[in-house]
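Lesson 9: reading folded outputs for more than one chain in a single document. The general rule is that every protein is listed as its sequence immediately followed by its structure tokens, and records are never interleaved. Here is the first one.
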Amino acid sequence: LVFLGLALPGTQGKIIPKCEMVGILRRNGFEGFEGTTVADWMCLVKYESDYNTKAYNNNGPSRDYGIFQINSKYWCNDGKTAGAKDACHISCSKLLNDNIEDDIQCAKKIAREAHGLSPWYGWKNHCRGRNLSSFVRGC
């Protein structure tokens, strides 16, 4: 997945507040999942989508969708990406609404298959190996 600096204009979704997102991740079993922490996931979401449920990024041949920036080449079907695998069996457009339950299931599938968060460039470039305690502090 490619790092997303800013969501494209007109794609403002719900910006999930920090502690609300921490709670969502904790309730959905992200702490310890595939050797990751909630702080890892919070950092990933910050640098991939800036907590925006409708974040979208065009990578040329593929696109990234939603709060976890799930890619259309491998994980979802946008009807535009040649040779798409659709491993999460979901329409990419469903990753752009404020209900992130399906986003969570697909993100966990990606992390499970990769045994961690290495598919996300936002996490690799900004989070891996760093002290991420500020992402969960106070929550």
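And here is the second record, again sequence then tokens.
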Amino acid sequence: MSQRLVLQRLLSLPTRGPLASHGRAFGTSAGRRSTFNVQDGSDFQDRVVNSPKPVVVDFHAQWCGPCKILGPRLEKLVAKLEGKVLMAKVDIDDHTDLAIEYEVSAVPTVLAMKNGDVVDKFVGIKDEDQLEAFLKKLI
């Protein structure tokens, strides 16, 4: 019975307006495009090491509880900077080689990179004020 209600609600979406053509509303602000998932080593080289903008690199894992808290906090603050800083997300289980190369021994580990060099780093969870201070040093 509940499945029928869910289906009815989905079918009753507006037939006009922004939801009509897509079925869902997703933002496409510059902030969202500032965050990306690293695909492989060459993607990391191209989009992080060779980036003309500062990049915050979030080394995380799906099984990491603190990562699930820190990641969205960091994404929100990076989005507020409107493209002045980029954010790369690196899953250590998928990209063990990058984790080893950047000496990640615990997650979450966050690196601040500028001109291809690590200029700052922290391990663990931080509150929003600490994260803002961390990001402001990059600009």
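What the second record shows: The CA atoms of residues 33 and 91 lie 18 Å apart.
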